[in-house]
Amino acid sequence: MRxxxxxxxxxxxxxxxxxxxxxxxxxxxxRPAQANATNPLPRSLDQMALAFITPAFxxxxxLLEMSAEAVDRYCPHRITQYIIVSxxxxxxxxxxxxxxxxxxxxxxxxxxxxxxxxVLIRGREIWLLDWRRPLRGWIMQQLIKxxxxxxxxxxxxLFLDTDIFFIRRFDVKCVAHNGRVRLWTEPxxxxxxxxxxxxxxxxxxxxxxxxxxxxxxxxxxxxTWRRDIILEMRSHVSSLSGDHWLRTIARxxxxxEYILYGVFVQELLGGGDLRHLPTNHELCCDSWNIxxxxxxxxxxxxxxxxxxxxxxxxxxxxxxxxxxxxxAIRAAETNC
Length: 336
Hints:
Elements lengths: L23 E2 L23 E7 L5 H14 L6 E5 L4 H4 L7 E5 L8 E3 L10 E3 L3 E3 L1 H10 L1 H4 L4 E4 L4 E3 L9 E2 L2 E5 L1 E2 L5 H14 L9 E2 L5 E4 H15 L3 H6 L6 H13 L6 E4 L4 E4 L2 H5 L1 H4 L6 E4 L7 H18 L2
Parallel strand pairs: 2-3, 2-8, 3-4, 11-15, 16-17
Antiparallel strand pairs: 1-2, 5-6, 6-7, 8-14, 9-17, 10-11, 12-13
């Protein structure tokens, strides 16, 4: 399916959409938001729309097929999931295309200055910045997420990775409250050196004083972003660098899109901007190691509507399915 390339995205100031298909309407706020120069109104707060965004690679296809089954089982069919894949691998994923799931070709979104080599190198796709600088797959996934406004005509995006599986019914109220969108914010996570590097990169890209830690971690699963804030963040990065935001960010080697977005909301927009609602209320039970995965059912809490079994654990698919099924059964039987 073709998407809107960078540079030709929908107009943020366009009139409110009526009867927008493929997205879920979020609850109306109890009071209207106030528009100003730094906090523009969305199209219409009672017409906000939600879509799922899933970057995918062929090596994760079996996990994605399981995840898609769970989306069909537990999520309203009004929500559309957008799976973003390379043109070379599109044929492997097109069977997942349906009325509520669209497979998008990444080359239709990420055009120049990011390009994919026409041949594989050691069996791998190679992406280049300006035809000379290789881009890691990790960075490509982040760039894809920051292109969400070009992928789906929605106001709110939930990032659903291929190794996340719903085990309870998804309700949009999980990610929106009185017109404010959930922002995962986890204080007290400053010990990891990788996170410190990512915070330093965010400081640089956003024009903030150098900082190893901005007071919270913003990395997690089932993360939600807003269209209007993505566009504001991209514009801010471009205005500081004097270059396209995509090229500016793609040059970074140590980078976290979630930290960049979270720091932008927290430090640049500030507490007076009410479009997001910071929370450390977990929606997903994560498994970062084998022990976590084996104890998945014992670790479930009532707030968990999904489970994650990290793809880099390389567990056999039958074992992953057994763990997810057991978690779903426990969630249904005990509500815990």
